[in-house]
Each structure stands twice: as C-alpha cells, then as structure tokens.
Amino acid sequence: MKNKLRNLFYNREILVLTILIALIAIVGFINPNFLKPTSLMFIVNSSLVLVLVTVGEIFVLLTKGIDVSVGAILGISAVVLGTVLVSGGSLFSAIFAAVITGVVAGSINGVGVAYFKVPPIIMTLGTLGIYRGLMRIITEGSWIENIPPNIKNLASAEFMGVRVFIYFVIVAVITVSILLKRVRVARYFYTVGDNEEGAYLMGIPVKLIVFLSYVISGFFAGLASIIFVAQIAFVPMQAGQGLELRAIASSVLGGVSLSGGVGTPYGALLGGIFLTVIDSVLVYLKLPSHWNNAVAGLILLAVVILDYRIRVSVEDYQRRLRARFRFVFVKEEAHLSKKSAFVKEKTK
C-alpha cells in the first residue's frame, strides 16, 4: 500500500491534480461562490487558449527544444483571421487562413532549428519579433474590431450546457495523448528528446521530427487564435503577448521536462487549468491582480520542488529495496554454496 502511494505521487499529473482540487476546496470554503458550476465552467472556458498553445509547446519541449514565439504566432494568426472576416471572407476561409498562418510560422521556426542548426531560443526569439512586427504592418498599428457575429456564435454555442469549444479542446487533448502513446512515429518525439544521437543511429529522421515539432506547435497556436478571437470578438495588438511563458510554465507544471523526452498532453491540460485557477482565485479572494504572476510563479516553484523531493524519495526507496534484495540474494547464494559443498563432502 505504501509503495502504491509512493508511485501515485511519483506521477506529476496526479500530484498537480491533487493540489488543484485542494486549492479549489480551500478557496471554495472561504468564498462559496467559487464552487458554483458557472464559476468553475468560466475558469475552464478561460483556460482553453492556454491549454491548446501548451499542447503544441509540448511537442517542442519533448525534442529538447523551446518555442518562445507561440504567443506571437497566435497573434499573427488572429490578425489574419480578423482581417479575412472584416474584409468579407467566409468563416471557413478565415479559420483555414488562421491555421495555415500558424503552420507556416511554425515551419519557419522548424527550418531554422532543424536544418540550419540555429539554437531554438535564438530562432524563436527572432521570429517572435518578426511576427509581432508583421501584426502591426497588416493592421497599420490599430486593433481589428467589428468582427462579424458568425465567429462570436461559435464561442457561445453549447451542447448539454457545456461550451462546444470545451468539448473540442478535450477531444484534441485525448486524441494527441492516444497518438503519442499508441502510434510509433509519434513516439519518435520522445525518442529524439531522450537521446538524439541514439535516435539517429536507430534510423529515426531526427531533423524531420524536430521540424515537425515546431510545425505542430504553430498549428495549435493557430487553432488557439480561433478560440481567442471568438471569445473576445476583436483582435488587439497585444494578442498572445506573454502567452509563451505561461505555456512553458503550464508544461513544466504538468510534468513536461525541459531536458526533453518526458511529458503528456494531460499535463498540459492540468497545467493550463491550474494557472487559470490561480488568476481566478485572486479575484475571489479580492487580492490585487498584479499578484497573479507572483503567486503563479510561487506555486509553480513549490510544485516543482515538491515533485523533485518525492522523486528523490521514491528513487532512494527503490535503491534501498534493490540493495536489500541483492543482500538477501547473495546471502541465499552463499548458503546454497555451503550446502552444496557439504553434500559433496558427504558423498566422498
């Protein structure tokens, strides 16, 4: 039982989920309005953009890379989406244009990192500035307003009392999780991040996998831009600003390793909801909003440190268990050896 409990908390997703439930319960005890279904549904709905961007970021982190341009990719995709809609384009063409913009922007990052060997942080920092500049060029520095109601209707659409976008994100997370777990090619992202040289010797197309990780990251940022515009019904120049750091924080919080090779989309889902809950907690506790980042950072550090201590404890316990087993095995082997020698002596 004790060993099962240790293994349970060795799982980062379980640890974060436990802390999340405890946090919601504590805040709900202080302010019962926090536990109302409408409040909890609002929190989940507010986390959707961050969750989608984080799911895309996970693919990059799995390959031991980093993408700090995802916020800017969401921004430029949102600008393209808004521009097409305002100019009279159909909803389908606008959504398609936004997703393609995300894919193209991610592909540029992928080419630079995978084929030109530009360090990921340098490449994505550079494209972050480029995409932000393009946003201003396209919009001439002004916000895109007067968005047609057809995309607003998507954000308000419900099925059985739950927003359709929530179903969409949950299905996306589950689908990606199944692919990463069951499909051999998808497992290559883990292999490359765990041991790039070993992956190359196994015949895995390392460069292509790294390239695809940035393409997928851009794809999910493009998808997130659709939800972003649908929810607020306009495109500000600050669209997606700071989202890249929150996506990385959500990934780490959900158990994704910055060293590559470790992490799941379920962790992205929990991490995104967790950070959104922190923002809402401060509102319900009537604390100033400028504490959001400080509190979120403090909790992130606490979870990572606690997770590290649990991992060390579990590894130490397993090490002692192996040592004890080895001692018993050696002792038994020595006993059998003596017994065998005694039998041989008797037979003589």
Give an overview of the whole structure.
There is one protein chain. The protein is an all-alpha fold and 348 residues long. The chain has a single domain (18-290), classed as ABC transporter involved in vitamin B12 uptake, BtuC, CATH 1.10.3470. Helix content is 79%, strand content 1%. The protein is built from 14 helices and 2 strands. It has helices at residues 2-10, 12-30, 37-62, 70-86, 91-115, 120-139, 149-156, 164-182, 184-194, 196-201, 206-232, 243-253, 265-284, 292-347, and strands at residues 158-159, 162-163. A two-stranded antiparallel sheet has the order 1-2. Strand 1 (158-159) and strand 2 form a beta hairpin. Helix 5 (91-115) packs antiparallel against helix 11, helix 8 (164-182) crosses helix 9 and helix 12 crosses helix 13 (265-284). The radius of gyration is 25 Å and the shape is globular. It starts with a helix and ends with a helix. The model has no long low-confidence stretch (mean pLDDT 83).
